[in-house]
């Protein structure tokens, strides 16, 4: 049980903090969710800030090492995180496919998650190059921040935003899966605790920014293009690299 204490604290903190920020309203208009709110920046900013402080803080580095020793696998790695990172995003499309309608149609939600993925991916890639933090297993200097965790939390926030009016439990489930992804990144000795925390913040923030930018993007880029769009989103993993394939039919 001692191995799970730090990770459980992370899970409880992130999930409780994110959902505590949201007002409990029976009917929420779509336009309200697209309005910029400074208070929505608090939790992801705190998470990202903690990760950056940990790059220099001796105390946090010591905590990183302690958590690694408690969480790291003793027998063999369990690579579920290479797949679970995509589960929240794919859940949005799966739920819609099975008739559980979310907030946006296929085209609009794809614009939103595509924008979020661009923001998240460029941020994670840039920070990995700039910081050059060595992974716990010594395999590369690309530890900070965790891209798998960022992808998972980006998807969890996406799932929450699309389905919070249907049931808040969809969002909670997404965040539990995202937190589990972060845990297994540490269990598999691929990331430090600060990498995971910062990745979570980047993922959440990327989706929030995407929702705020969505009206502008739709107006400037997709204006007048309201014809039916169909498509398919599928994850890929070739043993070294992972990502999402998106096929659109206009």
Give the structure's gist in a few sentences:
With 250 residues, the protein is mainly α.
Helix content: 55-70%
Count of distinct strands? 2
Quickly count the domains: 1
What integer value in Å does the Rg equal? 18 Å
CATH architecture: Up-down Bundle
Uncertain spans, ≥5 residues at pLDDT below 50? 23-32
Count of discrete alpha- or pi-helical segments spanning 4 or more residues: 10
Strand order of the largest sheet: 1-2
Helix-strand makeup class: mainly alpha
Average of pLDDT: 84
**Principal-axis shape:** globular
The CATH topology: Vanadium-containing Chloroperoxidase, domain 1
Order of helices and strands: HHHHHHHHHHEE
Q: Tell me the strand percentage band.
A: 5-15%
What top-tier CATH class fits best?
Mainly Alpha
Largest sheet: 2 strands, antiparallel
Please specify the SSE layout and strand pairing.
Layout lengths: L4 H17 L8 H4 L8 H12 L4 H14 L9 H4 L2 H11 L8 H26 L15 H17 L4 H20 L5 H28 L9 E8 L4 E8 L1
Antiparallel strand pairs: 1-2
Helix pairs in contact: 1-9, 3-10, 6-8, 7-8, 7-10, 8-9, 8-10, 9-10
